[in-house]
Design brief:
Largest sheet: 5 strands, antiparallel
Shape: elongated
Protein name: histidine kinase
Strand content: 5-15%
InterPro entries: GAF-like_dom_sf, HATPase_C_sf, HATPase_dom, His_kinase_dom, Sig_transdc_His_kin-like_C, XrtA/PrsK
GO molecular function, one term: protein histidine kinase activity
Number of domains: 4
Radius of gyration: 43 Å
Enzyme class: transferase
Structural class: alpha+beta
Strand order of the largest sheet: 2-1-5-4-3
Organism: Sphingomonas hominis
Number of strands: 12
């Protein structure tokens, strides 16, 4: 092989590797440098290598591109060094001086062809090499400084990228020093730099392809890539003869034709290598011949759990992720989820499945999977090698689907949650014991996720029913109070029916009961929607007098205090006080009145509901008074005090309680005082 062929091949391969690194970075960017800056450096490196392969390294466009490449990598190094601390002014000045030297070298290379004499052009060439030596040396010093400052913080990917930059500038320094010592450039120096450039491009490709938190080690993927690399080298050897033949028959355009051939055939090979079928075939061959097990279980399980754990607003629903995660284990291109209903299996979400079947799977499949827990090899069922019961359990549409490959049951303990139908992988093969073990474990894990999702859905339904029951518990509590109030009026009517004053009180009580019953019916009709009015100025004394008059036929209620305005919802306030008055009446003896007192403190309007009943113990007052469904009365619901406190807090107020056993209880309701203007209105 001639020297020109070596130059073409080496730089063409380097250009291809740089392009591959740029594509990998564009798809999965590494976070140790700005993405666009790293892409620019890789693209300019590929363009420069392609220019050297096509037209040589002495041409002005190639030298300008080389200067642009160096500037881009200096910018990448500056981005890597950002945030390291130290003298930022000195660092910025050093980077600026190095970049200026690179720009000046590019300007000299552009000016050189315009000089009139050979002596001037030779002097310009010497100046260009001197500027390149100076800028490359400065760049290496900056790189060394960066490595020294960030040695303890550099991960594997960044180390590989920094090594690539160091190899690039180190090889430039060596060949420039040799050229300066020999007072001229030779093709051997271009070949030497080409070898280093291939190493740089390979290191950059590895750097952008690796995760930042993972050390370099041989794995199944690396083994597959090594096989592809060996095949690529064989391709290079085989195509070398073709390149030499093109050099002999290409005439004056031989170099351009050779460069186009190298880059074009390399791109074609790269396209073939990245096809899904070839990748799948390579993985199968590597697992079969180089490893004792088909799967890298750690890697597969990490990918499985990562797929299941995807979150975010744009994340697919959990059933879709489960199908995808199980399908990825065997490189299946599609999957279908079947839900177990106890009588049959119905089609659920699909992942890349052409179309979901309209018919459900028969109950026989449900019973068979529930009883055996076996993974069904559909190909074995098609050719009659599976047990007869297994063949009979499969639906006809599943056997007729040529791409259907396996059925994985989703078992949680002894409960069948569903099953996943997997499509045939790109490389057809028979299921073996490793497939059964891995898919069985994945199926049990997926079943637990599905069961947990169903449990969350059931919990949400239970919460909705709980809210529904809670609303009706409040309504039942109000109904109990109304029934108690009416029953007491009826008992008193037997003794005081002839008293005109009692009859008037009884009519007022019945009117109040009718109004409250109408309000309850409205709450039922609106199914729990809020019916309360907006907060407004309310005269507490007038509210207390009205409630006392409505309860007079039931029990004596005394009212005292001044006219005092508070900010409240009138209907809610009357409901709250009604609960407290009813509790006070039920705790009091028939002849002992309940007292309502309106008072004012510094910032609140207060109304107190006081009784001389049995009182409450300190433990009940502290732990149980405001708990729903806990009552000190045998037939109580335990909701009156609870709802009263909720209503008070919704209006910006509070309720405090003092009580002594055998002496009575006082509920103190504090509400915001209405402003003077609202009181006047």
């Amino acid at each position: 092989m001639t020297g020109a062929a070596f130059v073409i091949w080496l730089h063409g391969l380097a250009a291809l590797l740089f392009c591959s690194a740029a594509l990998v970075e564009a798809r999965r960017p590494v976070r140790f440098a700005p993405r666009w800056l790293l892409l620019l450096a890789l693209a300019l490196s590929a363009l420069w290598a392609l220019g050297v392969a096509g037209i040589g390294d002495a041409e002005v466009p190639v030298r300008v591109t080389q200067a642009a490449r160096n500037l881009a990598w200096i910018a990448v190094l500056f981005a890597l060094a950002a945030g390291q601390g130290g003298n930022s002014g000195y660092r910025n000045g050093a980077y600026l001086a190095t970049a200026s030297c690179m720009v000046l070298a590019a300007a000299v290379s552009v000016l050189q062809p315009t000089l009139a004499t050979g002596v001037q052009r030779a002097a310009a060439e010497t100046t260009w090499r001197g500027l390149r030596l100076l800028s490359t040396t400065a760049a290496l010093v900056l790189l060394h400084r960066h490595v020294a400052d960030a040695r303890d913080r550099m991960n594997g990917a960044r180390q590989m990228l920094v090594a690539a930059i160091g190899i690039m500038w180190g090889s430039d320094l060596i060949v420039l020093a040799l050229a300066h010592a020999a007072s001229g450039w030779s093709e051997d120096l271009t070949i030497l730099r080409g070898c280093a450039t291939v190493l740089v491009a390979g290191s950059a490709l590895v750097a952008v392809h690796r995760r930042a938190d993972r050390s370099l080690r041989m794995s199944r993927g690396a083994a597959a890539q090594a096989i592809l690399l060996i095949a690529g080298l064989l391709y290079v050897i085989a195509a070398t003869a073709a390149t030499g033949l093109l050099g002999r028959v290409g005439g004056e355009h031989a170099r351009v034709v050779q460069a186009a051939f190298v880059f074009g055939t390399g791109a074609a090979v790269l396209t073939i290598v990245t096809t899904p079928w070839l990748r799948a075939w390579t993985k199968v061959m590597v697992a079969k011949h180089l490893f004792s097990h088909r799967y890298d279980y750690r890697a597969e399980w990490m990918r499985f759990t990562d797929t299941l754990g995807i979150s975010g607003d744009d994340a697919p629903p959990l059933p879709h992720r489960i199908v995808q995660a199980v399908a990825d284990l065997t490189a299946s291109p599609a999957g279908l989820l079947l839900y177990a209903t106890g009588e049959a299996m119905i089609a659920g979400p699909a992942w890349r499945w052409d179309e979901a079947p309209a018919a459900a799977a028969p109950a026989a499949l449900d019973r068979y999977l529930r009883r055996t827990g076996r993974i069904v090899d559909i190909d074995a069922c098609r050719i009659g090698e599976a047990p007869p019961e297994e063949i009979a359990a499969l639906p006809a549409w599943l056997l007729a689907h040529d791409d259907a490959w396996a059925v994985v049951p989703l078992l949680r303990a002894d409960t069948l949650v569903g099953a996943i139908v997997l499509a045939r992988p790109p490389v057809t093969r028979a299921l073996d014991w490793e497939d059964f073990d891995l898919l069985g474990a994945a199926g049990r894990q997926a079943a637990s996720y599905l069961a947990e999702e169903r449990a969350h859905a059931a919990l949400a339904d239970a919460r909705r029913f709980d809210e529904f029951n809670r609303r009706f518990a409040f309504i039942m509590h109000d109904l109990k109070n109304l029934v108690s109030q009416t029953a007491l009026v009826a008992r008193n009517a037997e003794r005081h029916a002839d008293n005109p004053a009692f009859r008037a009180d009884m009519i007022a009580t019945l009117q109040d009961t009718s109004q409250r019953m109408t309000a309850l019916l409205a709450r039922l009709a609106q199914q729990g929607r809020a019916t309360r009015e907006e907060v407004q100025s309310v005269d507490l004394l007038q509210v207390a007098l009205r409630l006392a008059a409505a309860r007079r036929a039931q029990h004596a209620v005394e009212v005292s205090g001044p006219s005092l305005f508070a900010l409240a919802d009138r209907q809610a306030l009357e409901t709250m006080l009604g609960h407290l008055i009813q509790n006070a009446i039920e705790a009091s003896a028939p002849t002992v009145p309940v007292r309502l007192r309106v008072v004012a403190d510094a910032s609140h309007a207060v109304i107190e509901v006081d009784d001389r009943g049995s009182g409450m113990s300190p433990a009940f007052l502290r732990d149980d008074l405001f708990r729903p469904f806990v009552s000190g009365k045998p037939a109580g619901f335990g909701l009156g005090a609870y709802e009263a406190r909720q209503i008070a807090e919704q209006m910006g107020g509070s309720i405090t309680v003092t009580s002594r056993e055998g002496e009575g209880t006082c509920f103190r309701v504090a509400l915001p005082i209405a402003p003077a203007l609202e009181q006047a209105a």
